[in-house]
Amino acid sequence: MRSHEVRAVLGHALWASSLLALLGATACGTLATSPSWVGGGLAVSAPVRAAEEDAALARERELIASQPKEIGAKHLLVMHDGSKSKPEGVRRTREEARARAQEALLKVRGGAGFEQVVAEYSDEPGAAERGGDLGVFERGVMVKSFSDVAFALKVGEVSEVVETPFGFHIIKRTE
After folding, report:
1. Residue 128 falls within a domain, yes or no?
2. Cα 127 from Cα 120, distance rounded (Å)
3. Is this structure's pTM higher than 0.85?
4. What is the total count of domains within the chain?
């Protein structure tokens, strides 16, 4: 290394150490710790998050305890290409299925008979013959997103469109 190069390197090192001294930093140890103004990181957020999750679970347990053990319901199911257990003939996108379910819901809300709308719109095999009737069932029998909505309905009430891995449902509680 030539002497002018050595002076340049030493100059940069001197400049860097002066800057660290001005900032009150010492060696590399300060990089491994957080400054006092940083807000606690995981030591603070992890217990808060755990407490929030515990509170949410407690609220859900209370809600479930306040609902009946079993209900009766009917449903209409509109499936799409990604639906679980879909029949071979279903060839619509998720967005098209959601739009079709919304259209069916408008008909039900407009006064059409639920069974009539099921016969026209539902992709579930045998749904038209049963009028969408699922009979009486306990909460754990259906997927959670379906059960959560169905058990929250009052007898005779019709849900909004509910998505599950099987597609888009409209649920009517019967008992």
Report:
1. yes
2. 10
3. no
4. 1
